[in-house]
Specification:
Blueprint (H helix, E strand, L loop, with lengths): L3 E6 L3 H12 L24 E8 L9 H4 L21 E3 L29 H11 L3 E4 L6 H14 L2 E4 L9 H9 L3 E3 L9 H14 L3 E11 L2 H5 L7 H12 L11 E8 L6 E11 L5 E11 L2 H20 L3 E2 L1 H7 L9 H13 L5
Parallel strand pairs: 1-2, 1-4, 2-3, 4-5, 5-6, 6-11, 7-8
Antiparallel strand pairs: 7-9, 9-10
Helix pairs in contact: 1-9, 3-4, 6-8, 10-11
């Protein structure tokens, strides 16, 4: 089968894990491929994709081949596939807009952004690159809080006729106005805010669902996350967190029969700890009442490498978009969005979403 042609905005840790993963699974078969939810989606395996366009704003990445740029600072994720062949795709200068928080330069110990002096392109430049590259799916890996930049690149995808996977917590796919525009052009979209393979959100949702099913009344809960990558450094600016907190909180509330008061639930990032690098540590506490209103509580600590934890999900999202393109299907892909994203347009339980994705892959009509 033909390769799926992928464009990436933001060559950070998540992009690094995605590109490494494409090469890592290239020589494997279904029998020896661990760590995947799906080996085959519509005839496409994880290795059946190529990066044909890439954008960033860091001088250490702009102008370099993607195979080199994914290992450039400040990227700090685990290297699980070192020998990445030259892709022939050079990282282009992207539009900055609100993509870089003002405080990032205040942390030289984190080896943070060094803005490229390359000329900043305009929207028509980006659209032209996407069209010329033959890109079919655009992966948005912009930093949290990049509201203007997220909409800028969504517009570029729309005008270039490229499917969009919105991996970040800016509400594009779950915004009816944007959703209608993609539907009118019959362009597939998946979003918003990627849900890790086995991370804080899916664990919190699963436990919340378990409490509900076992008749435990939930009184209070928190989910606090810490990490040492540039994503956590970026989120030290609390003004950039509104959409992120909404996305993560609604992902938990959506599996509850009754919402908790705002004072009884806290979900979100807590702090930046440089030496953790791409390791994300989640502290989760749930307090409730059992039979006879007898109190109980649960505390867990979850430690995961943040970016590889999302890469397998991203590979599934890309293949679902390609499957929709092959079928001539555009607009919101509700089943993949519900299963793979924290803030889809319509929330379902994870069991429901799992069955919906299986049905979508099998060719049944998306709900």
């Amino acid at each position: 089968m033909n390769k799926i042609k992928v464009a990436i905005v933001g060559i950070g840790n998540c992009a690094s894990s995605l590109v490494q993963g494409i090469e890592y699974y290239r020589g494997k078969t279904e029998g020896d491929a661990t760590g995947l939810m799906y080996w085959d989606i519509g005839g496409y395996t994880p290795a059946d994709m190529e990066i044909v366009a890439a954008f960033d704003v860091d001088t250490r990445k702009v102008g370099k081949d993607v195979a080199e740029a994914i290992f450039a600072p400040p990227n700090c994720t685990t290297v699980f596939c070192e020998n990445i062949p030259t892709t022939g795709t050079i990282v282009q200068m992207g539009c900055i807009l609100d993509g870089v928080a003002d405080h990032m330069g205040e942390h030289p110990e984190a080896n943070t952004f060094v803005l490229s002096e390359a000329p900043e392109p305009n929207q028509q430049d980006i659209i032209g690159i996407l069209k010329q590259s033959g890109a079919e799916v655009l992966m948005s890996y912009l930093p949290v809080g990049s509201e203007d930049a997220a909409r800028f690149y969504a517009e570029c995808a729309l005008q270039a006729g490229v499917a969009l996977v919105n991996n970040m917590p800016v509400f594009i796919v779950s915004d009816p106005v944007w959703a209608k525009r993609f539907e009118e052009k019959n362009i597939p979209i998946i979003g918003d805010d990627i849900k890790a393979q086995l991370g804080a959100t899916i664990t919190h949702r699963t436990l919340t669902d378990l409490f509900e099913k076992r008749g435990v009344t939930i009184d209070h809960m928190y989910q606090i996350n810490t990490g040492g990558n540039t994503d956590f450094l970026n989120m030290l600016n609390r003004s950039r967190l509104a959409s992120k907190k909404t996305s993560k909180t609604e992902a938990v509330h959506s599996v509850m029969s009754e919402r908790l008061d705002d004072d009884d639930i806290h979900v979100g990032p807590s702090d930046y700890i440089p030496w953790l690098k791409d390791n994300k540590v989640c502290f989760l506490r749930m307090e409730g009442r059992l039979f006879g209103d007898v109190p109980m509580n649960m505390e867990i600590r979850l430690s995961v490498e943040d970016s590889p934890n999302s890469a397998g999900v991203a590979i599934d999202a890309i293949r679902c978009c390609k499957l929709a393109l092959d079928r001539g299907q555009g607009g919101i892909l509700h089943s993949p969005s519900a299963y793979l994203m924290k803030h889809p347009p319509v929330q379902y339980t994870d069991d429901q979403a799992y069955q919906m994705v299986k049905a979508f892959v099998a060719g049944e009509r998306d709900t």
